[in-house]
Design brief:
The chain contains 2 helices and 2 strands, in the order αββα. By secondary structure, it is an alpha+beta fold. Strands 1-2 form a two-stranded antiparallel sheet.
């Protein structure tokens, strides 16, 4: 059995609420989120990017698929 392939479903530049509307509770999904961080009292030139990797798995996902994610 071949492992499932990871493929790009959507991309965007909107807020986190936009990402939430795109997630399917019946599937294991991954998201990569970029956040701009501005230290307190700093100028915009000092902003840095932070990246967040999200694994989205709900109780609606088939138990065998959920188990594969945890390995």
């Amino acid at each position: 059995v071949m492992p499932p392939k990871i493929r790009l479903i959507k991309h965007g530049t909107g807020p986190l609420s936009e990402l939430r509307t795109q997630l399917n509770p019946d599937e294991v999904q991954y998201a990569y989120l970029q956040v701009q961080v501005l230290p307190q009292g700093a100028t915009e030139a000092a902003a840095t990017s932070k990246f967040i990797f999200i694994t989205y798995v709900t109780s609606k996902v088939n138990p065998l698929k959920r188990a594969r994610v945890s390995v």
